[in-house]
């Protein structure tokens, strides 16, 4: 085990609420240990697999489209839950997150622990800025992701997870 923790904010800030993942990653700068990898991804499976290579814990932050929709609702899923919950779901990415996780498992590249934090979105049309509903959910989403990083660091030596 490397103890490596990776947070990936998936999304496109030029598509409204789909920019929530990158917004969370930006908000985490200076709030998590220096050795935490903070990355923004577009959801392309090859890049996702490379970002989490050799990681023990991966935290993915993603915009979700759920039916019936409850914009602003937060969800926390394991890799299994994300794979099951996104099966057949619409995605703005080449493959859904569930398909990407299944591919990682088949290639034996799935990290030991995967946590997915998502927020149900209202708008993903072209344009910058989050909707009011998603912006209101952002502080709680940021805290949930930071808590996942803290939890991942609990088993690491104190110097490896020194909080700023």
TrEMBL record:
Sorted UniProt keywords = Aspartyl protease, Hydrolase, Protease
One matching Pfam family is: HycI
- Record-level Gene Ontology MF annotations: peptidase activity
Q: Which CDD domains match?
A: H2MP
Q: One of this protein's GO BP terms?
A: proteolysis
Query: Which organism encodes this protein?
Result: Streptomyces kaempferi
Q: Report the InterPro entries cross-referenced here.
A: Pept_HybD-like_dom_sf, Peptidase_A31
Q: Which family does it belong to?
A: Belongs to the peptidase A31 family.
Q: What is this protein called?
A: Hydrogenase maturation protease
